[in-house]
Amino acid sequence: MLTGRSIRNAKRTATFCILFWTAVDCTTVLAQTKLTDYPLRALRLVNPYTPGGTTDLVARMVATRLSDAWGVQVIVDNRPGAGTNIGNEIVARAQPDGCTLLVNSASIATLTGFYSRLTYDPLTDLAAVVNIGAAPLVLAVNPSMEIRSVRDMIDYARAKSKLLTISSSGTGSSTHLAIELFNSMAKVDTTHVPYKGGGPAVIATASGEVNAIINSPAVVLPHVKTSRLRGLAVTSAERSEIAPGLPVIAEAGGLPGYEVQGWYGVFVPRGTPRRIIGAINAELDRYGHSAEGRARLLSIGLTTTGGSPEVFAEYFRLETERWVRVIRAAGIKGE
Q1: Interval 252-263: pLDDT, tens
Q2: I need a labelling partner for 109 at 20 to 30 A (CA). Which of 122, 131, 289, 322 fits?
């Protein structure tokens, strides 16, 4: 028979258990279990762009791979807006438990140059996990334009100041910066038209809403192949296997030194345990270097990058410093 004291003890034990399991999160559990038990619940993968662009394609590839490898649901959460700052901040402020991840493009390295009052710091509030893949951007125009080369485009822009419109994936994106760098080096004045991702940007260009686009191969090349866009050049220093028929802007436009490389990486909140970062990196790096992974990346216009979290973190830092110098020298301000 239970006594009053034993009943009270049982109630206290039950209350403690309820409070404990209500409060527990992925980090708390991981601290008491082996890494093989990670992840214990669904993962949230934030994409700070609209569906349809290359970042979204990379995010869905990552989600599928982690879900298949670990047997958990990985939910892609599209949070576009504010030059990707909305999605980035969601992850920067999330619990550092490995259950909230971010996929972003090289655009993330431009943000501290564009915005003087960010409520988070991409370099200190996010931890780099793995560089998934990279590719040059592609310059293309609507076929209705009498522009058939980079040289033609420069001549047109010089003759008709501000009348040439060029779309990007958003203010502060790498595609925006590629436009501004082109304007600066070619000494032209075009009109930048930002959209909330590569998908809307390429649709606007193919429909004739804007004249030209600089964006990722996965976004631009399908429309080039169907003649809805006319491809002019790539932004890499040398010709790319992604678009072997296109020259480089530096050569075709007489702009030596012009180079912009697009890349796509995974980040987590700063403070995420190194063992979790290592687990995510190992899985995605292994997949990226597999025959299946390389083929999947090539299908969306990327070549495998991979490497350790430390290598990616250093590359991210150097890219940020580079673009901050370019942005400040050109006097470019965020909108």
Answers
A1: 999 999 999 989
A2: 289
